[in-house]
C-alpha cells in the first residue's frame, strides 16, 4: 500500500519503502541531545507565512494518506480513555494485524502540556468523522504515523524505532514538509528521551542509577511550531546508511 502510494504520487521519486527498512541506523546521541535542547529552547509558536504553507501541505498529505488507509479496509476507532490504547509497539502491531482495527489515542484526551485546541495548526478539526467523533489533524497524523511508521515495519516506540518510523515516513511526503515532520516527530522524541529535564549533572542517568526517570513517568513534549532548517533534516537522514558486506 505504501509503495503504491509513493509510486502514484506526482511529487515523489518512487523510493523503495522496503529498502528503507533495511537501512543501518547510527543513533548519534549528540544529535539527539542537541535536537532536544533546540526543541526545549524554541518558543511555543514561531509562525511565518512559509511555515503556514508547509503545515497546510502537511495536513493535505496526511488526509490523502488517511483515505488510502481507510480504503484498504482498516477501521479507525477513537480512543478517549486517559491511557494509551496499546501497551507497547508489539501490542499495537499484533492487535491491528489480527483485528483490522486501529484505536487512535485522541489528542483531546491524551497529549502533552498546553491547550489541546487553538494555536497549533494540527489541533484544528480535520472534517473526518469516525464513530461519531470528529478527528483533529493531529489525530489524522497519529493514524498515518502508526500505520506507515510502526505497523508496516514493526518499529518500536523507543528512540531507535521512532527514528526508523520517521525515516520511512519521510519518503511519503514532498520535501517541503520534511522539516515539519521532523519537528512534530523527531524533535519531540529527542526531547522525551534525551531532554535537559532528564539529565543529572549534564548526563542522562542509566537505568538503576540515581535520578533515572523511567519512560512511563516522563512528561510528553509540548507541541511546538517553529521553523527547522533543511540542513537539520539532512543531518537526521544522514544517520541512516546502506548496509555493506
Give an overview in words.
It comes from Saccharothrix lopnurensis. This is Crotonobetainyl-CoA--carnitine CoA-transferase. This protein is mainly α. The chain has one domain. The chain contains nine helices and six strands; from the N terminus they run ααβααβαβββααααβ. The protein has helices at 2-8, 17-20, 29-41, 49-71, 89-99, 137-151, 159-170, 178-194, 230-237, and strands at residues 24-25, 75-79, 101-105, 125-130, 133-136, 240-241. The strands form three sheets. Strands 1-6 form a two-stranded antiparallel sheet. The protein has a two-stranded parallel ribbon with strand order 2-3. The protein has a two-stranded antiparallel sheet with strand order 4-5. A hairpin with a 2-residue loop joins strand 4 and strand 5 (133-136). The longest helix has 23 residues, at 49-71. It is globular, with a radius of gyration of 18 Å. The mean pLDDT is 93.
Amino acid at each position: 500500500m505504501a509503495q503504491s502510494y509513493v509510486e502514484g504520487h506526482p511529487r515523489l521519486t518512487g523510493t523503495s519503502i522496503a529498502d528503507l527498512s533495511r537501512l543501518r541506523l547510527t543513533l548519534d546521541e549528540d544529535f539527539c541531545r542537541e535536537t532536544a535542547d533546540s526543541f526545549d529552547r524554541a518558543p511555543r509558536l514561531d509562525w511565518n507565512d512559509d511555515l503556514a504553507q508547509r503545515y497546510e501541505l502537511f495536513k493535505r498529505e496526511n488526509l490523502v494518506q488517511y483515505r488510502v488507509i481507510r480504503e484498504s479496509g482498516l477501521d479507525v476507532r477513537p480512543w478517549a480513555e486517559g491511557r494509551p490504547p496499546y501497551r507497547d509497539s508489539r501490542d499495537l502491531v499484533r492487535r491491528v494485524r489480527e483485528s483490522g482495527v486501529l484505536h487512535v489515542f485522541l489528542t483531546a484526551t491524551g497529549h502533552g502540556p498546553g491547550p489541546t485546541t487553538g494555536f497549533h495548526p494540527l489541533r484544528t478539526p480535520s472534517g473526518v468523522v469516525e464513530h461519531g467523533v470528529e478527528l483533529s489533524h493531529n489525530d489524522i497524523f497519529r493514524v498515518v504515523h502508526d500505520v506507515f511508521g510502526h505497523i508496516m515495519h514493526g518499529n518500536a516506540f523507543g528512540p531507535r524505532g521512532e527514528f526508523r518510523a520517521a525515516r520511512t515516513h519521510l519518503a511519503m511526503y514532498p520535501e517541503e514538509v520534511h522539516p515539519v515532520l521532523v519537528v512534530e516527530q523527531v524533535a519531540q522524541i529527542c526531547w522525551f528521551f534525551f531532554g535537559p529535564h532528564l539529565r543529572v549533572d549534564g548526563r542522562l542517568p542509566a537505568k538503576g542509577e540515581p535520578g533515572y526517570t523511567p519512560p512511563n513517568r516522563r512528561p510528553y513534549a509540548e507541541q511546538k511550531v517553529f521553523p527547522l532548517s533543511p540542513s537539520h533534516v539532512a543531518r537526521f537522514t544522514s544517520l541512516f546508511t546502506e548496509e555493506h558486506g
